Amino acid sequence: MSADTTTSTPLDYSIRTEDVRLWYGDFQALLGITVDIRQGIITGLIGPSGCGKTTLLRCFNRINERYGNVTTKGKITILDKNIYDEDVSLSELRKSVGMVFQRPNPLPISIYKNVIFGIRVHTPLFELTRSQQEEMVETALREVDLWDTVKDKLHKKATLLTLEQQQKLCIARLLPLKPRVILMDEPCSALDAEGTEKIEDLLDTLRGKYTVVIVTHNMAQARRATDECISMLMGELIEHGETSQVFFNPREEKTEMYIEGRYG
Q1: How far apart are alpha carbons 245 and 252 in whole angstroms?
Q2: 1 closest CA partner among 27, 35, 29
Q3: Inter-axis angle of helices 163-174 and 130-143, to 10 degrees?
Q4: For 52-104, what is each residue's pLDDT tens digit?
Q5: Measuring CA to CA, how many Å separate 99 from each of 96, 104, 136, 219?
Q6: Is 0.85 surpassed by the pTM of this model?
Q7: What pLDDT score was predicted for residue 121?
């Protein structure tokens, strides 16, 4: 297994894992993952289906625990805090570590209410004035390049938007919570080529503002959109490095075989 050889201080990292192991019942899905993910960049998780990349992604906001019969061991430090410490609030963790799923999942309510939904759920006692809410909605929609498209139909159902617009809205829904990390589980899998291009353009605008970790089976997308890649196979980390190095000069034969389509 090849590790990242770049030199960075702990403060340069948003996510650090140490010997993370995870079981679904008796099946071990992660076999001791130790990796550091740098702050403010886009990191791709790549590998064949069933290799553990989505499981690892879901560890970062502990969403795996929703599925029951899951056992996790090891340490995950996000923003200098072990997320498995007893005093960690899952609600607070998921404010800092937002999640975007494979298929857009806007709520069947207005675009406006979708954007402010998260802040209302996570801070039920915090009252915002109407003007504060409107500013929050506009800011979030501008950041995902949706404002000009939807500003005249904010009170129409979000489910009437195109799939690409819905996925942008799902990202906008996270932003009022001021996340530090955004997790994306194949966010373009339900989109056509044009929609995929627009989401990739959006990813580029998020770089530097947020730490983004994205699972993708699309090797062209991983090559275009990420700064670093983590290659996984059968629950193990195979290789981690700059995307250009992983794709054009992989250290491990297993990485090269997957990228070239010889398995997976």
Answers
A1: 11
A2: 35
A3: 120
A4: 999 999 999 999 988 889 999 999 999 889 999 999 999 899 999 999 999 99
A5: 10, 11, 19, 21
A6: yes
A7: 78
pLDDT at 81: 93
SS3 letters across the chain: CCCCCCCCCHHHEEEEEEEEEEEECCEEEEEEEEEEEECCCEEEEECCCCCCHHHHHHHCCCHHHHHCCEEEEEEEEECCEECCCCCCCHHHHHHHEEEECCCCCCCCCEHHHHHHHHHHHHCCCCCCCHHHHHHHHHHHHHHCCCHHHHCCCCCCEHHHCCHHHHHHHHHHHHHHHCCCEEEEECCCCCCCHHHHHHHHHHHHHHECCEEEEEECCCHHHHHHHCCEEEEEECCEEEEEEEHHHHHHCCCCHHHHHHHCCCCC
Amino acid at 44: G
Q: By the 8 A CB rule, do 226 and 243 touch?
A: yes
- What is the amino acid identity at position 84? Y
Q: Which residue has the tokens 């570590």?
A: 97
DSSP assignment letter at 92 = H
Cα 34 from Cα 74, distance rounded (Å):
9
**Token pair for residue 107?**
């709520």
Residue with tokens 């929050």: 136
Tell me which H or E stretch contains 28.
Answer: strand 27-38
Q: How confident is the model at residue 123 (pLDDT cuts 50, 70, 90)?
A: low
Strands 181-185 and 211-215: parallel
CA distance 264 to 247: 16
Tell me how long the chain is. 264
Rounded to whole angstroms, how far apart are CA atoms 48 and 51? 6
Distance CA 141, CA 150 (A): 8
